[in-house]
């Protein structure tokens, strides 16, 4: 049975939703001061056009700031971010009330934009984590209602205060007053005990299970998001729509002024009227979307696609109409369809984005709509209206782009089901591991689950599952091009997997940077390239610790230990690394990795191209490390060599694990072993 909205909201608490809805309501207020444009223009001695441009800068700052603030929202308390950013926004409004020239207004407008930039990504992520999945669409709809309400009331509020204050400088009082709502939001977020910071992904995970959070890198988060097909279509569709959506209000306003001779007040009233039908459409959309998710998630994309295409058709009908009443009515209906379609966007994002990077996923909305679409769309619409006129610019841009955006979202819909399942599978698997850890079961040191890795559109690793227990030594075998190096690079953080997860000691490190993994103890020796040939042995060891804050004393102690393990390096301490033999160079590369006391040592190509006597020497070192409990994953092309050191062998063929088990058994497995031999060059 479907939960009632009251129960859904009750489960997460009313205050959070009221606060988010209020933030949406006040979001456009800083730009609503455009109704006071003539007064501000007179005071600051600038034209309407310059003023519109300066106020528009806030929209760009809002989109640019969304990415870094979303990254913060994925890491830190969202409640505190609301409190801090809203205070910032309020403070900038106060300053804006006292500006004396257009440059000061430009800067304050930019700062206000940054102060607001957190809202869309943070609201999406907070709603997803605060309210149960069953009612999410309806909660998103309630939050979305804040916008048309704000657009409806904003210009009136601003105009009213300026009128009450009166005089040429009345606009300053209006701006000063507009500092109050964000300040109120900041106070509520900061002090209310009812605005809670929910655990990230709590509804996707088993209730009450805490997963240790690790730093999520912004670069990796976006690399990961780009790999999700639904997300790519959504970003493309929203960018195209941004072209249409953001140029419509401005051109429409100009049309009302030029062709219908409406003054500022009348235009404000028309603008508000256009948002009226949205107030009806948004709640209906919330209910419909929820039913669509239950039936099949791909219907969400279809829903968005159809509504946007229908809005495009309405625009096509509306803009050539000369009768103002009908023109406003049809434009209002088109806006209602777009508002309804937009309720589905956060629901889709919440479904397909991994919860750890959800706020960053939500940042796609402002970035696509405002930055790519809005900015570029505004320029093109301006050009078209110069060459032709406002009406032609609207007819040429809006219907076609709304149709194209709708088509892109319709196309992307077919991926939503798979992408949502993949996100859920990733979480389920994580849950199982967390439960294992909680119940005291041994967690392997390294775990790879369902790892898929692609270079562009070519997949090279498929569903790789691999575990390494502490102290275990595993040989990774396979022919050239099987994907061994790719696997090591992905574990080290040098590549972002397309799907699946990587864990170290039970903590997910799939979205962490290579530097973080290195600090956690994953150290890789690159095959044949692990040293600086132009430096001496001593300087190579120094270079290895250059960026690691290692104290001199510790460095000297470790170097002494390493020279004990590799006496030959001691003998040739001041010689150029280039003058060392192949085996000695490999030892130097190992020493440069071991100086960091790795938790796991990854070695790419241990014995490639080395003489048997040198290989024997290296094997003795590996045996010594193994006896000391060092965990190692070693890429090796020779089965014979692997048999010497490995507890276990994993055989990779064309990106698939074909064998995982004792190395001896693989030797007996003649068909596989033969492939290994054929692939190997020095067996
Ligand atoms: P080798 O022993 O030859 O290094 P390998 O088992 O380590 O082989 P990988 O180097 O991981 O295999 O390569 C796996 C596949 O990915 C190969 O088909 C290779 O051509 C391809 N590949 C590797 N690196 C890239 C890259 N940067 N861009 C595109 N394709 C790549």
Keywords:
single chain; Growth Hormone, Chain: A; 683 residues; alpha/beta; binds adenosine-5'-triphosphate; 6-stranded mixed beta sheet; Rossmann fold; disordered C terminus; 4-stranded antiparallel beta sheet; 2 domains
Fold topology:
Blueprint: H1 5-12, H2 14-26, H3 29-32, H4 37-44, H5 48-73, H6 78-96, H7 102-116, H8 119-130, H9 136-165, H10 170-177, H11 180-191, H12 218-226, H13 229-260, H14 264-295, H15 298-318, H16 324-352, H17 358-362, H18 364-387, H19 390-438, E1 446-455, E2 458-468, E3 473-478, H20 484-492, E4 499-504, E5 507-508, H21 514-520, E6 522-525, H22 537-545, H23 552-565, H24 567-571, H25 582-594, E7 600-603, H26 612-627, E8 631-635, H27 639-645, E9 648-653, E10 656-662, H28 663-668, H29 670-679
Adenosine-5'-triphosphate is lined by residues 455, 460, 478, 480-486.
């Amino acid at each position: 049975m479907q939960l009632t909205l009251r129960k859904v909201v009750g489960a997460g608490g009313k205050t959070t939703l009221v606060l988010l809805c209020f933030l949406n309501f006040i979001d456009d207020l800083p730009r609503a001061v455009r109704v006071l444009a003539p007064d501000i223009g007179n005071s600051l001695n600038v034209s309407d056009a310059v003023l519109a441009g300066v106020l528009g800068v806030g929209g760009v700052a809002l989109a640019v700031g969304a990415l870094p603030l979303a990254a913060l929202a994925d890491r830190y308390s969202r409640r505190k971010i609301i409190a801090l950013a809203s205070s910032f926004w309020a403070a900038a409004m106060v300053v804006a009330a006292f500006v004396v020239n257009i440059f000061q207004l430009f800067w304050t407008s930019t700062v206000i934009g940054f102060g607001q930039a957190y809202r869309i990504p943070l609201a999406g992520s907070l709603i997803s984590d605060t309210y149960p999945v069953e009612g999410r669409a309806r909660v998103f709809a309630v939050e979305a209602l804040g916008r048309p309400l704000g657009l409806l009331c904003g210009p009136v509020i601003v105009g009213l205060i300026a009128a009450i204050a009166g005089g040429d400088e009345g606009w300053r009082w209006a701006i000063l007053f507009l500092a109050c709502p964000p300040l109120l939001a900041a106070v509520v977020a900061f002090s209310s005990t009812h605005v809670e910071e929910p655990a990230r992904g709590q509804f996707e995970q088993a209730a009450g299970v805490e997963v240790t959070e690790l730093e999520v890198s912004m670069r990796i988060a976006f690399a990961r998001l780009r790999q999700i097909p639904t997300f790519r279509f959504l970003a493309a569709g929203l960018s195209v729509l941004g072209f249409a959506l953001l140029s419509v209000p401005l051109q429409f306003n100009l049309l009302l002024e030029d062709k219908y001779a409406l003054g500022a007040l009348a235009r404000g009233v028309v603008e508000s009227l256009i948002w009226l039908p949205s107030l009806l459409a948004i709640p209906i959309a919330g209910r419909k979307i929820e039913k669509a998710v239950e039936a099949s998630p791909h219907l969400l994309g279809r829903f968005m696609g159809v509504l946007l295409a229908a809005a495009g058709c309405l625009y096509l009908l509306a803009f050539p109409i000369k009768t103002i009443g009908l023109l406003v009515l049809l434009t209002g209906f088109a806006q209602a369809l777009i508002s309804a379609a937009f309720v589905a966007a956060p629901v889709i994002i919440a479904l397909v984005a991994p919860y750890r990077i959800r706020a960053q996923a939500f940042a796609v909305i402002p970035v696509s709509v405002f930055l790519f679409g809005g900015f570029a769309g505004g320029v093109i619409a301006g050009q078209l209206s110069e060459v032709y006129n406002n009406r032609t610019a609207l007819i040429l841009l809006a219907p076609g782009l709304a149709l194209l955006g709708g088509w892109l979202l319709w196309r992307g819909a077919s991926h939503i089901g798979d992408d949502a399942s993949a996100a859920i599978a990733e979480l389920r698997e994580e849950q199982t591991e967390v439960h294992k850890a909680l119940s005291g079961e041994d967690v392997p040191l390294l775990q790879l689950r369902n790892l898929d890795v692609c270079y562009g559109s070519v997949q090279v690793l498929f569903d790789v599952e691999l575990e390494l227990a502490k102290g275990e030594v595993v040989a990774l075998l396979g022919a050239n091009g099987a994907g061994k190096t790719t696997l090591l690079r992905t574990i080290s953080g040098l590549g972002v997997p397309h799907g699946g997860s990587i864990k170290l000691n039970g903590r997910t490190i799939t979205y962490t940077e290579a530097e973080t993994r290195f600090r956690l103890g994953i150290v890789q020796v690159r095959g044949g390239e692990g040293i600086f040939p132009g430096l001496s042995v001593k300087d190579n060891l120094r270079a290895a610790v250059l960026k690691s804050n290692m104290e001199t004393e510790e460095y000297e102690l470790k170097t002494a230990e390493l020279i004990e393990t590799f006496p030959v390096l001691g003998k040739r301490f001041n010689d150029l690394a280039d003058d060392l033999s192949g085996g000695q160079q490999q030892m130097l590369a190992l020493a440069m990795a071991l100086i960091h006391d790795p938790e796991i040592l990854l070695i790419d190509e241990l014995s490639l191209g080395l003489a048997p006597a040198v290989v024997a020497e290296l094997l003795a070192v590996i045996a010594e490390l193994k006896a000391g409990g060092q965990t190692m994953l070693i890429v090796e092309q020779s089965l014979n060599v692997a048999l010497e050191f490995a507890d276990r062998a994993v055989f990779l063929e064309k990106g698939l694990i074909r064998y995982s088990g004792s190395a001896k058994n693989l030797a007996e497995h003649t068909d596989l072993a033969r492939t290994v031999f054929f692939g190997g060059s020095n067996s």
